[in-house]
Amino acid sequence: MIKKYEVVIEPGEDGWFVATVPALPGCITQGKTLEEALNNAKEAIEAYLESLKKNNQPIPEPDVISIQEVNWKS
């Protein structure tokens, strides 16, 4: 079965991009580019889930997240 996890990528203070996976607490990585951050997030998700399986822990279901754009006029 394929599960899709949402990845949130934000600019970090050091100029790198930080990727977090809300459904997997503590699953966080970074990359110099958006592409690198996303690739690193995929690897982090795989490692996280493998660790859960190895330790007979339940696999969290993906969260349903809606990212919406909000306009603000100053």
What would you say this structure looks like, in words?
- By secondary structure, the chain is an alpha+beta fold.
- It has a domain at 8-54: Double Stranded RNA Binding Domain, CATH 3.30.160.
- The chain is 28% helix and 16% strand.
- The chain has one helix at residues 34-54; strands spanning 8-11, 17-20, 28-31.
- Strands 1-2-3 form a 3-stranded antiparallel β-sheet, with helices on one face.
Placed side by side, the strands forming the largest sheet appear as: 1-2-3
Largest sheet: 3 strands, antiparallel
Question: How many whole angstroms does the radius of gyration measure?
Answer: 14 Å
Order of helices and strands: EEEH
CATH class of the domain at 8-54: Alpha Beta
Measure the end-to-end span.
47 Å
Could you list the spans in which at least 5 consecutive residues all have pLDDT below 50?
none
Residue share in helices?
Answer: 25-40%
User: Mean pLDDT, rounded to whole units?
Assistant: 91
Q: Please give the count of helices.
A: 1
User: What is the CATH topology classification name of the domain at 8-54?
Assistant: Double Stranded RNA Binding Domain
Short note summarizing the structure:
The protein is α+β, with helices and mostly antiparallel strands and about 70 residues long. Helix content is about 30%, strand content about 15%.
